[in-house]
Specification:
By secondary structure, this protein is mainly beta. 4% of the residues lie in helices and 47% in strands. The chain is elongated and about 100 Å long.
């Protein structure tokens, strides 16, 4: 009789288990979506960035924000068309934000018109700044009667930062000597001293103004406190720091010289002398001063043939790389002649500074006292540079809106250039210099 053997489950071999696992995994893959979303194109705009991202402002201050598109490649593209919103203060649709009156933290948001990318945001911190100090510049000035000088006052907070929105008032301690208007421009009235005071939020600062009577002393309109750079009587041609740059100048004698007779410097223009040049040029270093006074005793021959361009130059001041300015005798070839200044700096507008106080002609054959004051501007908006000149103690021109270059003055030149291009002398003419006095700071 046959015996039936009981059946037993055999263990699954390892390779079989591996095949079953692969089959199970394949079955799971067929039951779920494994599609991978491709990244956006690198040039697609995905967000908006606001620049600057943070601004610290005082109440009433403004800040211009700009919006830029940010691509998937993290590049920024200017010129995004956005709609602006602010959680405090106001903002124009050009992105100009104005802080409100209340201190605090606020936000500015730029949203792309039509939607799409993520909006951009910037933080704004508005804090109340307390005026801690006023500063008046310059703190001293010397003015002739009828002259004027613009003072400027800057308000600072306790951290030393300027407060451009501070309201400043001006007052003169002696209006009979000097007046001051609401913008800080001082006008001299009579000889003496006056204190000009600026005030704002309980803080004050002041400047001392000295008003002098024209016609006193050898250099009556030289500001006090200026350091003498040269005082040249022309006893020798090359001395006391002077040198000849080109051409020739000759020493002569004139017992009628008013300040340092009899020796004088003589510049001759012989028959046939061509326009656009000088008989000679003598120079003296200035050391980069930004305020300069020049006084000369000067005479023109009688007769004098003026240049066809109406320009007869007397003296120059130069910078190293930003141009120059000259004072000249201006008028048609037969006269009359007047003194004018012409800035030829890199910052100049190529326009004459003409007499705007008194109109006094140059008298030929007579010694004149010519004075010239230059003071660089302390602000560019608007410029407040000074150019002022006198003839025999009388104020001729007074300008206080000249824009001087960033570089100080490096050279003073006696360069009596006759006119411009063309024309020629048909007679023997002369310029004489009795004395040159230069000071500055």
């Amino acid at each position: 009789m046959l015996r039936r053997t009981a059946s037993r489950a055999r263990p699954t071999r390892p390779w079989v288990r591996a095949q079953l696992a692969v089959a199970a995994a394949a079955g799971c893959l067929t039951c779920r979506d494994t599609t991978v979303t491709p990244p956006p194109p690198s040039d697609r705009v995905v967000a908006i960035a606001v620049v600057p991202s943070v601004a610290d402002l005082s109440p009433g201050q403004t800040q211009a924000f700009t919006a830029r598109s940010v691509t998937a490649a993290e590049d920024t593209i200017p010129g995004a068309t956005v709609e602006w919103r602010a959680s405090g203060g106001t903002i124009t649709q050009d992105g100009v934000y104005t802080a409100g009156p209340d201190p605090g933290d606020y936000s500015v948001t730029a949203t792309k018109v039509g939607g799409g990318p993520l909006p951009g945001r910037a933080g704004v911190h508005v804090f109340r700044r307390v005026l801690a100090m006023l500063r008046v510049q310059p703190d001293t000035a010397t003015l002739p009667i009828e002259g004027s000088w613009p003072l400027s006052a800057t308000a600072y907070d306790s951290a030393g930062n300027a407060l451009p929105t501070a309201v400043i008032t001006w007052a003169s301690g002696n209006p009979a000597i000097a007046l001051v208007d609401g913008g800080g421009v001082v006008t001299a009235v009579a000889p003496g001293a006056a204190t000009i005071t600026a005030s704002s939020q309980g803080r004050t600062d002041s400047a001392l103004i000295q008003v002098v009577q024209p016609g006193t002393g050898p250099w009556p309109n030289e500001p006090s406190g200026f350091r003498v750079i040269s005082d040249q009587p022309w006893a020798f041609l090359v001395s006391l720091g002077w040198s000849v740059q080109f051409g020739v100048g000759a020493l002569g004698t004139d017992p009628t010289a008013p300040l340092s007779p009899p020796s004088v410097l003589r510049m001759a223009y012989p028959v046939g002398f061509e326009g656009g040049t000088a008989p000679g040029t003598l120079v003296h270093e200035l050391g980069g001063v930004r305020q300069l006074y020049g006084g000369i005793r000067w005479k023109v021959s009688d007769p004098w043939q003026g240049h066809a361009s109406s320009v007869n130059k007397i003296q120059y001041v130069f910078t190293n790389g930003h141009g120059s300015m000259f004072l000249g005798m201006y008028g048609p070839p037969g006269g009359p002649y007047e003194l004018r200044a012409f800035p030829v700096f890199s910052t100049s507008s190529d326009a004459w500074l003409v007499p705007n106080v008194n109109h006094i002609p140059v008298t030929l054959g007579v010694w004149h006292n010519v004075e010239w004051l230059i003071a660089y501007n302390t602000t560019d908006d608007p410029p407040n540079g000074i150019c002022r000149w006198w003839l025999d103690g009388k104020l001729i021109g007074d300008y206080h809106d000249v824009r001087y270059p960033p570089e100080g003055l490096t050279w003073y030149k006696l360069a009596p250039v006759w006119g411009g291009v063309g024309d020629a002398k048909r007679e023997l003419d002369y310029f004489w210099y009795d004395h040159v006095h230069i000071s500055g700071r």
